[in-house]
Every structure is written in structure tokens, then in C-alpha cells.
Design a protein that fits this description.
Keywords: Signal. InterPro entries: AB_hydrolase_fold, Lipase_secreted. GO terms for molecular function: triacylglycerol lipase activity. The chain has about 400 residues and is α/β, with parallel strands linked by helices. It has a single domain (about 1-410), classed as Rossmann fold (3-Layer(aba) Sandwich). It contains 14 helices and twelve strands. It is globular and about 60 Å long.
Length: about 400
């Protein structure tokens, strides 16, 4: 049996046994690391070896979405009925520079429907900012035990970008809606080249960091106008960045993400200095988080710390931080296709108030969306407990069923 509990607030763990059944677990705090040695050991247990597969080519066609190489993913822990691959492809960073990005692909076994398996472009939540933190380099694919396997079991192929800088060379532009959206969009082009038998119809679905990315994809598709794009799902998305990095005291918050935010700021704006945000306590384990540690390491490194204990005063007034907030604004631009926005009432990592207010702002700006609120659920349980609803909504979009907006009713 393979079981894991990953992040704070996780009340249900998914255990991979012969039935891949849902089972009730203890409080997350009992399963998360409280020391760095424990965190490192947990990450090492799930890690796959570094291989030359992720090495960027020295030359060649750098068209965004161009497939570089592919290989079977025979080293993952998968339920029966699913085959996995890895792909490497060209993408763009936030400034539209060429970058090499990796992804994994999940395809149902069996006979595909006429036209091929429809595609879900998956955008994952925070795994870390260092190269080892790519989901395709994890045995469980990071979200395998949070409902991701339910998509191929439901007859949907999945292409899941790592985001550039995770596994591949160069810094990961963490929490940048443009960079992450490009990686998602071009993963779809690459997977079509790798597996031409797949359907051209696709949707995007993302959680947390990926929830921002999926909404950003919907914005970009307004200009791209891909006729095969059918809609977007944003689950617990960081669509209100200020509320994510500076939540109100009553909202909780997760300050251990802040060193990763500082890393992302430097990746996007090279002149930015993490010391502009982080004080001595905040910088104590920054280098490890930036180069080798992943989510568990970040959590354990700042376990029990508050934002005030690890940051300098007025750090959000920095010009680079203000530029990040402006660039990552969500809900102002028109989107193409239907949009489903999901949040949990007990989410202490991405406060539901910010998600709701962003959705209302979008409605006021003429964006039609469906809004789903799951009372009492924290960050990861919202993802897991809404998977069936996500799949049902996605299949309705692929079937061209009428879309009903909830604007004015939440």
C-alpha cells in the first residue's frame, strides 16, 4: 500500500491499494514533517532519478509547442488501465523567451472513442521551485493521490506540464500567470504531435498555482481562438495574489510559501533581491528551497513561523512585487469559453474570500462563469472532493451542452 498526506488541512488521504479507494485519515498535522531531515527523507522516497531526458537540445526548431522527445513513464505508481509517458517540448516564459518544458501524459487503455480520447491539460499546484520538484520526476505524479487518476479512468487523456524550470534548465517563474499559461497551452500542441490519435478537443483544469494558470489560459484563448478549446476549471486558484501573499489574520494563510514567491519574483525580475522580502529567519533556508528542496522542505523549514516572523515590513511596496501583482491580475480580461471557479470554505492556503471577490469582479466585467463553493473544505480536500463535479462539468463542455452562468447568484 502506498499512502501519502501532503499539505496542511488535508483531512482525507488517498491510499493506492488494489482498489485505489478513498480512506479517512488523521489530521494533516500528524502526517506532515516538522523537521528538515524528515522532509528531505519524504521527498527522497518519492523522487525519481535524474536522467538526460530533461536536457535541453543545443539546437533545432524552437517553435512553441514543438515536441523535442518522448519516452514511456514505466517508473510511476499507477492504477491499472492507465499508461504514462513523459514529453519534452518548447514553450515560452513570461517575457516570451524560448524555454524547455517537460510534462507527463496519462492515456486510458482500451479502445478510444471516435475521434480519440479528449484531452485535459492539467496545471498542478505548488510543488516547489527547484528542479527536483517537477511532478513528472515523482513516483506518484504529485497529484496522483488527489484525484488526478480519476480523469483517465473517466476516459479523458491528461497532459500535465511540470512548468519550465522544474526538471528543466532555468529558473521557475513561480506564481506567474503568463509563464504557467504558456506552458499549459504549448503542452497541448506538443502532446498532439506525440500522440496524433488523441482528440483535438481539450479543456484546461488546474488547482492552486494551477488554478491561476487555468484561468490565464482562458484569457489567452480569447486571442488565440483555438476552435478545439472548450473551457477552463480553476480550483482553489491563486487568482487574488495579494490575498494569497498577505491574507487577513482571520483568513489563516501559509507563510512558508513566501520564500518560493521571492524566488519567483527573482526569476521574473532578475534585479529583485529576496532579502527585500525576507528577513534573517526567512532567508535561513532560502538556498535549499531554491536549489534542492520541494514542498515538504519549505513547509518544515518554516514550520510554526508567522509572516511577521520571516518578512520585513512594507515588503509588498517593492516595485517588483507591485509589478507581479499587476501582471497577475485576474478577472479583468475577457475569457474564451465557459469557466468553472471552485473554492472551499475552509481553505487557509488560498482564502475563499479572495476567490469569491475575484469571481464577482469577473462577473461585473462581463465574464460568464459558474461558481461552486464547498463549505468547510480546506485547500487540498476541495480539489479531491470536487473531482467528480469537475469531470462531469468537463464532459458537458466536450458534449457541447449549454453552459449556465452563476453570475449574480453567489
Amino acid at each position: 500500500m502506498y499512502c501519502r498526506v501532503k499539505r496542511p488541512g488535508w483531512m482525507l488521504s488517498l491510499c493506492l491499494n488494489s482498489l485505489f479507494a478513498f480512506t479517512v485519515s488523521a489530521q494533516a498535522g500528524d502526517d506532515l514533517p516538522t523537521s528538515l531531515p524528515e522532509a528531505r527523507a519524504m521527498e527522497a522516497q518519492d523522487a525519481l532519478p535524474v536522467t538526460a531526458f530533461y536536457t535541453a537540445p543545443a539546437a533545432g526548431d524552437i517553435t512553441p509547442g514543438k515536441l523535442i522527445r518522448q519516452e514511456p513513464g514505466t517508473d510511476y505508481v499507477l492504477p491499472s488501465g492507465i499508461k504514462a509517458w513523459r514529453i519534452l517540448y518548447h514553450s515560452l516564459d513570461a517575457a516570451r523567451h524560448d524555454v524547455t518544458t517537460s510534462a507527463f501524459v496519462l492515456i486510458p487503455e482500451g479502445t478510444p472513442p471516435k475521434g480519440g480520447w479528449p484531452v485535459v491539460a492539467w496545471a498542478h499546484g505548488t510543488s516547489g521551485v527547484a528542479q527536483p520538484c517537477a511532478p513528472s520526476r515523482m513516483k506518484d505524479l504529485y497529484y496522483g493521490d488527489e484525484g488526478l487518476f480519476e480523469f483517465p479512468k473517466a476516459g479523458l487523456a491528461v497532459v500535465a506540464t511540470d512548468y519550465h524550470g522544474l526538471a528543466t534548465p532555468g529558473p521557475h517563474q513561480y506564481m506567474n500567470k503568463l509563464a504557467q499559461a504558456y506552458d499549459v497551452i504549448y503542452s497541448v500542441r506538443a502532446v498532439r504531435e506525440a500522440f496524433p490519435g488523441l482528440s483535438h478537443d481539450w479543456v484546461v483544469d488546474g488547482h492552486s498555482q494551477g488554478g491561476m494558470a487555468s484561468w490565464s489560459v482562458a484569457e489567452m484563448e480569447q486571442q488565440i481562438d483555438d476552435p478545439h478549446y472548450r473551457g477552463a476549471v480553476s480550483v482553489s486558484g491563486t487568482v487574488d495574489m495579494l490575498d494569497f501573499i498577505r491574507p487577513a489574520p482571520a483568513e489563516g494563510g501559509a507563510p512558508f510559501y513566501l520564500p518560493m514567491v521571492a524566488f519567483g519574483l527573482r526569476a521574473r525580475y532578475p534585479e529583485y533581491k529576496p532579502q527585500s522580502m525576507l528577513n534573517h529567519a526567512g532567508m535561513a533556508h532560502y538556498n535549499e528551497i531554491a536549489t534542492s528542496g520541494c514542498w515538504f522542505t519549505g513547509y518544515a523549514a518554516l514550520y510554526g513561523k508567522t509572516e511577521n516572523q520571516i518578512t520585513k515590513s512594507n515588503w509588498t511596496r517593492n516595485l517588483a512585487v507591485q509589478a507581479m501583482l499587476w501582471e497577475n491580475a485576474i478577472g479583468n480580461q475577457s475569457v474564451r469559453g465557459p469557466l468553472l471557479v471552485i473554492t472551499g470554505g475552509g481553505d487557509t492556503s488560498v482564502p475563499p474570500g479572495g476567490v469569491r471577490s475575484t469571481a464577482r469582479k469577473a462577473c461585473n466585467n462581463g465574464i460568464r462563469l459558474a461558481f461552486r463553493f464547498y463549505p468547510g473544505l480546506d485547500h487540498d480536500p476541495t480539489m479531491t472532493n470536487s473531482v467528480k463535479d469537475q469531470i462531469s462539468w468537463i464532459k458537458a463542455r466536450l458534449a457541447d451542452e449549454p453552459f449556465q452562468s452563476d453570475c449574480g447568484h453567489f
